[in-house]
Specification:
By secondary structure, the chain is an all-alpha fold. The strands form two sheets. A two-stranded antiparallel ribbon has the order 1-2. A hairpin with a 6-residue loop joins strand 1 and strand 2. The protein starts with a strand and ends with a helix. The relative contact order is 0.07.
């Protein structure tokens, strides 16, 4: 893992800025050299593309700087909220967690009424944040259960939690805890509805899992996001998914039994992922 000098996140690889890109950024007042993560590179290229006119440029730079500061400071909010949880100050914890969610909505420039989705975290530098978001929704889900007037919020938190844990290694632990929580919850119907939704949305990625050996590693999560939020939106994509699930289980079984095939599949899928990142 390497640390991005711009956003301070630990990532699997950094991407060279390049002299031309570096010069363009310096003209905008962005002093970036060496290599940065894919997410920062994407954000800066968007900033360059939007830099039309002095006033607009200044506004975009200010917004980008503000979003970057929020992203860096989100960890402090999580630590603060979990401190409140440990001290059983659930009201303060809920308020702080909600601030964290709001920070992410601003970072990803969501409009009013739009909710966070796992696909927003598809960049390798941010994939691990999916588990953090899932844990936040789990705490909010239980906090909202303490008061009947928050049942609507609890339902919404449950829907979000069901969506995010699909791509997180804490999935089995959360489902197990939810099953136990349903026995003592004030709103057991909402908890059971969450369990049903969470356990229904769990399609595997057979070949990728057999190749990388971990259903929640960065590469497998990215491919699943690509499947769920890109391929599934078109008829051709849905056809591909259907064919894949017909042929992939036996192929995955063969790959699991041969180390050489795992290495070949690893090289192939890594190349596929690099190609996909150009369009998604």
């Amino acid at each position: 893992m390497e640390k991005c000098p711009r956003c301070q996140l630990q990532v699997t690889e950094l991407h060279a800025v390049g002299p031309e890109f570096e010069a363009q950024l310096q003209a905008l007042g962005e002093m970036v050299t060496g290599a940065i993560c894919l997410a920062c590179s994407s954000d800066l290229r968007k900033l360059l593309a939007q830099s039309r006119g002095g006033t607009l440029l200044a506004q975009e730079r200010a917004k980008e700087s503000y979003r970057l500061d929020l992203w860096k400071n989100r960890v402090a909010l999580i630590k603060k909220a979990r401190g409140f949880m440990n001290g059983k100050n659930y009201t303060a914890a809920a308020v702080t967690y909600e601030k964290y969610i709001k920070v992410l909505e601003i970072v990803f420039t969501l409009k009013k009424g739009q909710a966070l989705t796992p696909k927003l975290f598809k960049d390798s530098a941010r994939t691990s944040e999916i588990t953090v978001v899932a844990s936040v929704y789990w705490d909010l889900f239980r906090i909202y259960d303490t008061n009947d007037k928050y049942s609507d919020r609890q339902q919404m938190a449950g829907k979000q939690l069901a969506s995010f844990i699909q791509y997180s290694p804490i999935y089995p632990d959360i489902v197990k805890k939810a099953e136990a929580f349903a026995k003592s919850a004030k709103n057991p119907g909402i908890v059971k509805a969450f369990i049903k939704e969470a356990t229904q949305q769990r399609p595997r990625c057979f070949i990728a899992t057999s190749t990388y050996g971990d259903p929640f590693c960065e590469e497998v999560v990215y491919l699943r996001l690509f499947r769920d939020y890109f391929l599934s939106n078109s008829r051709l994509g849905r056809w591909f998914i259907d064919v894949y699930y017909r042929v992939s289980p036996p192929v995955a079984g063969i790959i699991e039994r041969h180390l050489f095939l795992q290495k070949c599949s690893n090289c192939l899928l890594n190349s596929v992922i690099k190609c996909i990142r150009h369009i998604y």
